Amino acid sequence: MARQRKQGSEDEGREEVRLDKWLWAARFFKTRPQATEAINGGHVHLNGGRVKPSRSVRAGDELTITKGTTRFDIVVTGLSGRRGPASEAQKLYDETEESCKRRVTQAENRRLLAAGEPRPERRPDKRQRRHIIRFNKGQE
């Protein structure tokens, strides 16, 4: 008869966890395949270098994570291979002061740019959408 294990218990006592699993548990990515794709795409650097998804992460490691135009510089403080509540996930890392300031500045710049652009009063109706599609096809 097979032994039953408590879910998530295999990573709880360890001193290292797979990078893709940790990124998922720390809620930087919604799924593990997304985390793996980001790592393979060069959007995640561990201690200044590119790594593979199976690389182990330890407490004290420095990660640079790029999501879209946002860059996070963090230091790993805790390990977990189990995805829990966001409050627990935030305890797994500390973001550097410089990274936090940069993200706030970027958010403010995006807000200011969006405020300067006029927004349509309503969505285009079916006839207007057809015109837009026809116009875009003519541009190709």
What are the salient characteristics of this protein?
two-stranded antiparallel sheet, elongated, 7 strands, 5-stranded antiparallel sheet, alpha+beta, 140 residues, single chain
Outline: elongated
What percent strand? 15-25%
The averaged pLDDT comes out at 89
Residue runs with pLDDT of under 50 for 5 or more positions: 3-11
Oligomer: single chain
The class by helix and strand makeup works out as: alpha+beta
Computed over alpha carbons, the radius of gyration is 21 Å
Task: Summarize the SSE layout with pairings.
Elements: H1 9-12, E1 17-18, H2 19-25, H3 32-40, E2 44-46, E3 49-50, E4 56-57, E5 62-67, E6 70-76, H4 86-89, E7 93-95, H5 97-116, H6 126-139
Antiparallel strand pairs: 1-4, 2-3, 2-5, 5-6, 6-7
Helix pairs in contact: 2-3
If you had to describe this structure to a student in words, what would you say it looks like?
The relative contact order is 0.13. The chain is 41% helix and 18% strand. Mean pLDDT is 89; it is low at 3-11. It has six helices and seven strands. The strands form two sheets. It has a five-stranded antiparallel sheet. It has a two-stranded antiparallel ribbon with strand order 1-4. α2 (19-25) crosses α3. It is α+β, with helices and mostly antiparallel strands and 140 residues long. A hairpin with a 2-residue loop joins β2 and β3.
In short:
By secondary structure, the protein is of the alpha+beta class. The chain is built from six helices and seven strands.
